[in-house]
């Protein structure tokens, strides 16, 4: 009995290398230069923006790129941003320094709730303004209070006995569920307590664990970063983060040209796009150059400290050694490198 040809498989079918499957299989070996050439054909244009955007779609995960591919990606972004914002824009790619593990400490007794840190962060890190405003730092306003014996006889309902005690209707201690948005005439407000929150740069980050495409990961110096070009916008990291530290670009970010900070880092404050997640990076474009984060520099009361946790003489290590220190939600075993302390 002779073999019969399989249905829908003519004898003159193209070999695998000429088929769509073969193209997809071989596409992984294409260089960025080849993709740029293909972009010109596919877009039918020599326009740099069209070709650059097309190449970005086929860009691989940043940490898996060769150095040559990284250099090509950086150069492509610098050309695009310079053209888009009308100023010379640099995209840094300085890697983590050996022997450095960044840590942060914040004196919650000194914080006055002025939120200059949040505004400085917006300006430094090219966050969206206006209706699409994004802030990486959130300052919670919480009431101060205590249980008062004078209120013990009060309550509701009176005629049926005290089912709800009188201390239920006033602040009786500081809790995390504070007021996220407040606009006082002046700060600090009487009987108010302020607690800034940002990315805790966890040693065991739950956001990294849940990312299905590994677009967010922990760098050797402890900073948790996001490769915006690889983010698929699933927002699983937002749900996993217990500190409300991540933001999502629901719309096209609004970044005025005149306000754009041209000194950027690929894994930090370079302009983002619609549909990606972003977060604090300890101002990686600054700290890897030996500078303080913008929020540390702008704090008017010196409540913020930053340094190398591996250096016994750093500011942050001295705080850990001499002050009353705690970490937020330590019971979750995320091991934050963002510490709160009191004098």
Report on the structure:
The protein is of the alpha+beta class and 343 residues long. The chain has three domains: 13-58, no CATH class; 102-137 and 198-342, Alpha-Beta Plaits (2-Layer Sandwich), CATH 3.30.70; 141-196, no CATH class. The protein contains ten helices and 14 strands. The strands form six sheets. A four-stranded mixed beta sheet has the order 12-2-14-13. Strands 1-10 form a two-stranded parallel ribbon. Strands 3-6 form a two-stranded antiparallel ribbon. Strand 7 (216-218) and strand 8 form a beta hairpin. The longest helix is centred in the N-terminal third of the chain and has 19 residues, at 67-85.
CATH architecture assignment name of the largest domain? 2-Layer Sandwich
Number of strands: 14
Task: Provide the low-confidence segments as ranges.
Answer: 1-25, 27-32, 38-46
Could you give a short account of the major beta sheet? Answer: 4 strands, mixed
Net shape: elongated
**Proportion in β-strands:** 15-25%
Order of helices and strands: HHHHEEHEEEEHEEHEEEHHEHEE
Class by SSE composition? alpha+beta
In helices, the fraction of residues equals: 10-25%
**CATH domain class of the largest domain:** Alpha Beta
Stated plainly, the CATH topology of the largest domain is called: Alpha-Beta Plaits
The largest sheet has its strands arranged as 12-2-14-13
Rounded to the nearest angstrom, the radius of gyration is 26 Å
Average pLDDT figure:
85
